[in-house]
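Dear support,

Our group has been running a series of protein-ligand predictions, and this particular one with FE2/S2 (inorganic) cluster is the one our PI (initials K.S.) wants archived with full inputs and outputs. We had some confusion internally about which version of the output was final, so please treat the block below as the authoritative record. The input we submitted was:
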Amino acid sequence: MTEPITVTTTEQLQSGEMKSFIIGTRQILIARQNDTYYAADNKCPHMGGNLSKGTLNGSVITCPLHNSKFDLADGKVLQWTDFGGLAKAIGGAIKKPKPLKTYPVVIKDNEIQVLLSL
Ligand code: FES
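Confirmed final output from the archive:
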């Protein structure tokens, strides 16, 4: 069952900013670009990098560990690590690209709510 969980308020997050929040056993990343809000797992699907310590450019988040890039709008992988030629050299030894889990966001009054299945 999916429920709206209030995570923070719009006043607590400026445009271009992102923060992580603990909700139960999960770490959820909330990011804001102008009046658009995004929610996703805060752990990078590559090796668990703390995405809230990465960079945000529009809806694109870059992991601080190995520079994988994801679109926060849908979790799509835009770049999987910056290992490049190394990944090709050692073939299948590197994890295959995996999308970032994202969640719907609802703004109710000034509350930022994330729809999570509990
Ligand atoms: S942990 Fe994020 S790119 Fe490796």
